[in-house]
Amino acid sequence: MTEIQFSRGIKEEVVPDVRLTRSKDGKQGTATFYFKNPAILDKDSTDEITGMYLLDEEGEIACRDVKGKFVNGQADGIEATHVMKSQADWDRFMRFMERYAKENGLGFSKA
């Protein structure tokens, strides 16, 4: 069970585009997630976005930097940023992403 949620208990079915950056010394990093038309923004959804929660067998990684993207006044997507401030944070995030990628058929490519 590896999943992403925007409201606790509600799995987001849309698979995001994820971009990673890392400092030269490897001590800090950033993951930027972009969800195009996520289910949480569906007009019939009444769920409140409280953050982005990355859940797996190790537990939860919580991200609070979550922003809506709008086109012509209509909700179009969500962008969420997760900042990793240590090597341990980076390693934990990468373990989550390896599990998430395997379950969702994602690949990794360097820029």
Shape: globular
Q: Mean pLDDT, rounded to whole units? A: 91
CATH superfamily: Photosystem II Psb28
Order of helices and strands: EEEEEEEEH
Backbone structural class:
alpha+beta
Count of helical regions: 1
- The overall number of domains is 1
Overall number of strands: 8
Mind telling me the CATH class?
Mainly Beta
Largest sheet: 4 strands, antiparallel
Pfam families: Psb28
Protein name: Photosystem II reaction center Psb28 protein
Organism: Oscillatoria acuminata PCC 6304
Keywords: Membrane, Photosynthesis, Photosystem II, Thylakoid
Task: Map the helices and strands.
Layout: E1 3-7, E2 10-11, E3 17-22, E4 29-36, E5 52-56, E6 59-63, E7 65-71, E8 74-84, H1 87-104
Antiparallel strand pairs: 1-2, 1-5, 3-4, 4-8, 5-6, 7-8
Membrane topology: Peripheral membrane protein
InterPro entries: Psb28_c1_sf (IPR038676), PSII_Psb28_class-1 (IPR005610)
Protein name: Photosystem II reaction center Psb28 protein
